[in-house]
Amino acid sequence: MGRFLSVFEPFILMLLGTVVLASLVPARGEMATIVGYAADIGIVLLFFLHGAKLSRDAILSGLRNWKLHLAVLAVTFVAFPLFGLGLSALPFVTGPLAAGLLFLTLLPSTVQSSIAFTAIARGNVAAAVCSASFSNLLGILITPALVALLMNTSDIGGGSSGISMESVEAIVLQLLVPFVAGHLLRPWIGAWVTRRKAMLTVVDRGSILLVVYSAFGAAVVEGLWTKLSIGDLILIGLLCAALLAFVLALTFAVARLMKLPREDAIVLQFCGSKKSLASGVPMAGVLFPPAQVGVILLPVMLFHQLQLIACAVIARRYADAAPVDIEPG
Asked: Residue 15 in contact with residue 209, Cβ under 8 Å?
């Protein structure tokens, strides 16, 4: 029971607390502008530090297991979006909720939790590092491209079809440029960043909380909770749970079909079934109108918690079933 409850880490409680705070005391006027600027600065710093942390050796070594990485990317950026198109086309899912479900499926995989669960399950940790890193790196480019291809922002209050040139410029300046700059400076600052995991965690989580507060505050000012009912929240939760179950079953089946070794099958299941809240929050802030970001992020946040709970249980079962290493006598 303790292992199960451990997935409810303080960050999830902080995330829920931020939503409550934004609902009760949303930033308005000049304060909303200040919070927005602070969130933008946090996002730039976040991607800069992640770029500095990504090892070039990990990228090169990961190329050797290209079949596994292609399988993870295919599930993340092909199978997931197809599921998302199906869910968003359901007649009882409309407007920003449909957009939120589809946007969820276009995001890259997580990094930290994918690697952590792979380690718990005694999988191929090195391959998990490579797959999760590739997914996040490519997601900076692929996710906005998929949004432009598959989503019509006029249906959610954007007033136009696809993403604008301003959104592309914002993605490049806020996400891609800091990431590349951090990676290019890695020879000088990489070791310093790596030694300061606590600092990276604070920036990572702090930037997400700032964007969530800003986004939900703007949505609340626009009447978010008058537009959504308890039934809507339950519906989103059920659809996210169904989506996660489908993808977990798919990754298990694909691993069997590819005859992957147990350690690599674990990587495919955990890296392929995840969606990144850390990437989704800043991207949503760049791609969608401020008043719509809050409701669009609801499915992402619900899916994030469901995947933590489900994968914690699955990882523990993998670990319990793993062959016991026998020390040579």
From this structure: yes
CB atoms within 10 A of CB 176: 16
Cα dihedral sign, 229-12-281-138: negative
Q: Is residue 121 classed as helix, strand or coil in its secondary structure?
A: coil
Q: Which class for 218: exposed (0-12), middle (13-18), buried (19 or more C-beta within 10 A)? A: buried
Tokens of 150: 């598959």
Query: What are the tokens at 89?
Result: 């086309």
**Vertex 326 angle, CA 321 and 329, to 5°:** 170
On whether the CB atoms of residues 70 and 258 are closer than 8 A, the answer is no
So what's the pLDDT on residue 43?
76
pLDDT on residue 253: 96
Helical segments of 121-229, H only: 125-150, 165-171, 177-184, 186-195, 197-221, 224-227
* CB-count exposure of residue 305 (10 Å: 0-12, 13-18, 19+): middle
Q: How many other CB atoms are found less than 10 A from the CB of residue 3?
A: 11
Q: CA–CA separation, 294 vs 36, rounded Å?
A: 13
Burial of 232 (0-12, 13-18, 19+ CB in 10 A): middle
First to last CA, the chain: 36
What confidence tens digit (pLDDT) does each residue in 142-197 have?
A: 998 898 888 865 454 444 444 555 656 666 777 778 878 988 898 899 888 888 87
- Provide the whole-model pTM: 0.78
Q: Cβ–Cβ contacts within 10 Å for residue 56, how many?
A: 11
In this structure, the number of other CB atoms found within 10 A of the CB of residue 87 comes to 21
